Amino acid sequence: MSVTNNATHLELRSQFEDFLRHERYGYDKRIETALALVSSHDHNDALSKTKNVRRRPALTLSFQLADLQSHSPSLSSSLFLHPLSHIRALDAAAHEIASESSPGYSSKSGSRIRVRIASALDYLSPRGLASHTLRTLVSVEGVVTKCSTVHPKLSESVHFCPATGRRDRRDHRDAADPNLGLTELDDRGVEVPDRYVTGTQGGYPSADAQGNPLETEYGLSRYKDYQRLTVQEMPERAPVGQLPRSVDVLAFDDLVDGCKPGDRVRIVGVHRPLASIAGVTSSGVFPTVVLGNSMQTLGRDAAGAVANYTVEDLRDIKAMGKRSNILDILGQSAAPSIYGHEVIKKAIVLQLLGGCERDLENGTHLRGDINILMVGDPSTAKSQLLRTAMKVAPLSISTTGRGSSGVGLTAAVTMDVETRERRLEAGAMVLADRGMVCIDEFDKMSEEDRVAIHEVMEQQTVTIAKAGIHASLNARCSVLAAANPVYGQYDKRRRPQENIGLPDSLLSRFDLLFIVLDQLEPEHDRRIAGHVLKGHRYRRPGTGVAPERPGGTAHEDDDEDTIRGKRKSMWDARSTEILTQDFLKKYIHYARTRIRPVLTEEARECIAMNYTDMRARMDERTLPITARSLETVIRLSTAHAKSRLGRSVEVEDVEAAMEILSFALYHENKTESKEETAAVSLPKTQDPPQDLSDQGPFKTKEQSDQGTNKRPRPNSPLPTQQVVQERILQALSQSPNAELDLNAVLMEFDIATKRKAAQNLGGDVHLQDDMLYQI
After folding, report:
1. Which of 91, 224, 671, 738 has the most CB atoms around it within 10 Å of its CB?
2. Distances in Å between the alpha carbon of 406 and those of 411, 429, 457?
3. Domain-by-domain residue ranges, the chain?
4. What is the main EC category here (predicted)?
C-alpha cells in the first residue's frame, strides 16, 4: 500500500479505516468500549444529576504508532511528515466506526471521538526543536514548570436576531486551530478545491449584515477546554553551563489538567509556528508551540540510561551486595578524590539510597528522604561533597543561599505576559521531586527564605494560597546543605547552636548535622598533601600525559575487575578498590528503587533502646534529641539495609546507623576513634624532621604512632597537638587544686602551642586567661 503526499482526505480516511478495522489490532473493539463507558456515565448522570460529580470519561482512542508502522510503513512515514491532514483523516475514520457501532453517537453534542497517538518516535527535549521539526510530529520530554488555568474556548457560536427571528452559526478559529491551512471539506468529507481553512476574521459578531443587533445563545454554542503549559528541559539533560530551554504546549479537551508543575511528561504533538500574534510579523520571527495530541506522565524514579541494567550488571550488583564492607566501598567510591570524611561519605551514600516513605491509613505521610547539613570551617571540602552527590544522584538541582529565594525554592505565582492571567510556576524543590536539592552557603539565606522550606523538609509538599490560587505541590526531595559558622571559624567554646546560627525548628528537620573542623596537625596535613599530589601525578597505564579524572570511566586496557565495575584506588592506600561512577550509579539506583526493607522485631527493640539512651545523654552541649531523631534512626537503618540489598532491617543495620548518628551528635566514631574529619585543601605545614628525610615528605601511620611517644628535641619542628595535650593533662592531674598555669609549665613549648592544645581539650576542662581549670 503506497501513500503519496497529495492523497485526498477520502483516500486517507479509507486507509485509516482499514487499519482500525483490522482484526489483528482490534481498535474497533476499543472504540465500542470507549462508547460504552461514556454512555454508562451519561445514563447515571441523567438519573442523579445532583449526586454524580465525576468527570465525564474522555471519548478517545489511543493507538500505537508501531502498529501503524507494521501495517503500512508508507502511511506511518506520511503521518510523521504531514501530521495535521493525517490526524484529521484518522479522527474521521474513528468517527465513522463509532457511528456504526452506536446509532445515537453522531447525534450527541460534543461527543466526537478523538484519536491519541502513543508515539514510538525518538524523544526530543525542547532544545532539539528547530526549524526542521516545524509542521512534523514530535515527541517532547521535559518538566512542566508553568500551568495556566483551564478556560472554555469558543469553537462555534450561535446568534439569535430578535428582529428577523433567525439563528446563525459561526465557527471560530485562531492560529492554534489544528485544521488551519488545510483544505476545506464539505458535508460528505470531500475536499473543496482552492478553499482552505482560515482564521476567523472581524472579531466577535454583534450585528448582522442589515445592522440588526444579535444575541448570543450561550447554551447552544460549543466550547472546548483550553490550557497552556510550559515544558522545560530536564535539569540533568541540560548541557553544563547553559540555561535549560523550554517550549509552550497547547492542551485541549481531555488533555487539560493532565499534569501539574513539577511533573515529568512526554507529549506527542505537532510543532508549528503561531503567526497571528501582533508585533512579530515584521521581523519574520514567529513564536512556536506544540499542539498536544497525547500526554504521558513519566515515573519520577526513572534515571534514563542508569536504569538500563545488563545481565552482567545485575550479577555484579548482587555479588557486591553480599560484601560485608559494602557501605565502606560505596563511601570510598562516592568521592575518591576527597581525603578523609569517611563518615560523611557514608552518610551521603545513605542519603542517596533513602529510606522507605509510608502513607498511613489516617492520611499521615512519613518521609523516607534523609536531610543532611554540614557546618564547618572554610576549605574543608563541603562544596566538593555537594558536587560529588550531584554527580551520583539521578536527579539533582543545585542552588546557593544568595542565589535563591523562598519562592524560587518552593513555588511562585506569576502573571502571563500574553494573557495577563496568573499562573503557578514550580521552584527548585518541586522540580527536584524524587531527587536531591543541594544548597551551598545555606547560612547566607535570609530568615524569610529559610522559613519557606520548613514545610518541604518535613511534610514534603508546597502549599500555595496566593492571588486566588490554592494548590499543593509535591516536593519529595532530600536536602544536602553546607554552611559556614557564624564567626567564620568554628568556636569549640560555644554551643553548636551558637556556632551554626540557625533556629532549632530548622535544625531538627535535618537528620544529620556534621561539624567539619580544620585540624592543624602536621601529620594530618602531610597525609592531605600526599593525597592531593597523587591526583596530580597519577597517569593511567596506556594513556598520555593527561591525569585520570576522579570517577572517570574505565579504559579498554584496564584489568578485568575494572571492566566489571571495580578498579584499584589511586587515592587511598588503605583501600583496595573503588567502583566506577557508572556502576556506582546503577548500584544505588537498583537498591533505591527495588529494595524495600521491613523492620524486624529485634530492630524495633534496638531502635527504642538507642533512642532512650540518646535522650538520657542530651545536654546543652549537644543538639536537641526529639521524636524526629527516632525517625532518623529508622531512615538510616532502612537505608543501610538497602545498601546490602537486604529485605529486612536487622540489628546490624541499626548499629551502623547509630555509629553515623553518634559521630554527628557526639563526634564519636567507634571504627576509627582517632581519625578526625579531614580537610581537602592543603594548609601550611612545617618542614619534615631531619631523621625522616630519607623516607620522603610523607610518613606512614606506624612511623607517626612511634613518633608521638618521643619527647620533641629543641631543634625539631613543633610537636603534634596530641603530644602537647597529653603533657598538659598529665600536669593538670598532678596539680593539687585542679588548676594549671600554662605560663609556668611545659617551658619547652611556646605559649601559642599550649593555648591551642588546651582549647581543643573540651570535656570538663575550661581555659580562661591562660589558666586551665578542671571542673
Report:
1. 91
2. 8, 10, 13
3. 9-120, 122-298, 306-594, 718-774
4. hydrolase
> Which pTM does this prediction carry?
0.63
Q: 9-120 belongs to which CATH class?
A: alpha beta
- Tell which residue, 563, 664, 104, 758, has the closest CA to residue 341: 664
The identity of residue 695, as a single letter, is Q
Residue-wise pLDDT for 248-271, tens only, equals 899 888 888 888 787 788 888 888
Chain center to CA of 349: 16
Q: 119, 65 in Cβ contact below 8 A?
A: yes
State residue 537's pLDDT score.
65
Counting runs of H as helices and runs of E as strands, what totals does the chain give? Answer: 24, 30
Q: Which amino acid is at 346?
A: K
> Domain 306-594 falls in which CATH fold?
Rossmann fold (3.40.50)
| Cβ-proximal residues to 546 (8 Å cutoff; 6+ apart), any chain | 539
* DSSP notation for 737-766: TSEEETTTS-TTS-HHHHHHHHHTT-TTEE
Q: Where are the beta strands (DSSP E) in 617-756?
A: 648-649, 739-741
H helix or E strand, kind and range, residue 535? helix 522-537
- In tens, the pLDDT along 646-677 reads 889 999 999 999 988 888 887 765 544 444 44
Residue 725, CA distances (Å) to 104, 222, 406, 450, 764 in order: 94, 86, 46, 40, 14
Task: Report residue 702's pLDDT band, with 50, 70 and 90 as the boundaries.
Answer: very low
Question: If you write DSSP's letter for every residue of 458-473 in order, what string do you get?
Answer: HT-EEEEEETTEEEEE
Tell me the three state secondary structure of residue 371.
coil
Close Cβ partners of 179 (under 8 Å, ≥ 6 residues apart): 84, 88, 173, 197
Considering the domain 122-298 in this protein, what is its CATH number? 2.40.50.140
C-alpha grid cell, residue 311: 545481565
The three cell numbers of residue 599 are 523492620
CB 235 within 8 A of CB 397: yes
